[in-house]
Amino acid sequence: MAEDLHIDNSDKLSMYESLLPQLKALCEGEPNQIANLANITAGLKEAFNFFWVGFYLVENEELVLGPFQGPVACARIQKGKGVCGTSWEKEETLLVPDVEAFPGHIACSSASKSEIVVPLIKNDQVIGVLDVDSNKLADFDVIDEQQLTKLCQWLVSIL
């Protein structure tokens, strides 16, 4: 597959619907987890121009920074801490329209204004999270939640 993405920019849902099959094709046949996570973060960043997008992976009872695109980030997050740690603890997607209003928010960057975190659940255990930040308030909605959840459900099948 060519490494160029072709995104239908007519609306947000169309963007996801054109991007997700290309991300799957990009990962098809690639056994390396880091390569696949890196390409997924790059594809999401390129398509949507998110402020920050990346993965944290569970390692020794912490979330450890994995492949990402954007400014430097926190390297480790404890379970139950911040949006990512809370998503891990609750095993659910968190959509946060204003990170300043989230109790215990970890500010890796003061430019981050809203966030969505989707847990990667495999064999009934969270193995990591997809974290996406925006520099705009209330930038994520139910379309982001549904489509990123769909992406993560597929992703755990190849991890």
**What is the mean pLDDT?**
93
Trace the largest sheet across and list its strands. Answer: 3-2-1-6-5-4
Structural class: alpha+beta
CATH-defined superfamily: GAF domain
Our measurement of the CA-to-CA distance between the termini, rounded to an integer number of angstroms, reads 21 Å
Uncertain residue segments: none
Strand content: 25-35%
- Output the CATH class name: Alpha Beta
Q: State the helical fraction.
A: 25-40%
Number of helices: 4
Shape category: globular
Q: Give me the CATH fold name.
A: Beta-Lactamase
Computed CA radius of gyration, to the nearest angstrom: 15 Å
- The total beta strand count reads 6
Give the ordered list of helices and strands: HHEEEHEEEH
CATH architecture: 2-Layer Sandwich
The largest pleated sheet is described as: 6 strands, antiparallel
How many domains make up the coordinates?
A: 1
Question: Notable features of this structure?
Answer:
159 residues; single chain; 6 strands; Beta-Lactamase; six-stranded antiparallel beta sheet
Task: Give structural notes.
There is one protein chain. The protein is of the alpha+beta class and 159 residues long. It has a single domain, classed as GAF domain (Beta-Lactamase, 2-Layer Sandwich), CATH 3.30.450.40. It has four helices and six strands; from the N terminus they run H-H-E-E-E-H-E-E-E-H. The protein has helices at residues 12-27, 33-48, 82-90, 142-156, and strands at residues 52-59, 62-69, 76-78, 94-96, 114-122, 125-134. Strands 3-2-1-6-5-4 form a six-stranded antiparallel sheet, with helices on both faces. Helix 1 runs antiparallel to helix 2.
